[in-house]
Write a structure and sequence with these properties.
With 67 residues, the protein is an all-alpha fold. The chain is built from 5 helices and no strands.
Length: 67
C-alpha cells in the first residue's frame, strides 16, 4: 500500500523508533508500512496521522494512477 508515512515522519523530525513508540508498534512495523509491505489497520493509520499532525487523506490517500 503506497503512502506518505515516511515523508510525514521526517517532516516532524521523528525516527522510525520514535514514531513506533508513540503509536504502540515496533520500529519494524513502521518500516514495513513505509515500504508498502504492510497494510495497517484503520486505528493504526489514525494514530500515525495524529502523531504527524496530518489527515488520513494527506498520509494514505493515493490518486488512481499514482501507484
Amino acid at each position: 500500500m503506497e503512502n506518505k508515512v515516511k515523508v510525514s515522519r521526517v517532516e516532524k523530525n521523528l525516527t522510525q523508533q520514535l514514531l513506533a513508540n508513540k503509536v504502540g508498534v515496533t520500529r519494524q512495523t513502521i518500516s514495513l508500512i513505509e515500504k508498502g509491505a504492510y497494510n495497517p489497520s484503520l486505528n493504526l493509520c489514525l494514530e500515525i496521522c495524529y502523531v504527524v499532525g496530518k489527515t488520513l487523506d494527506e498520509v494514505f490517500w493515493i490518486e488512481k494512477g499514482e501507484e
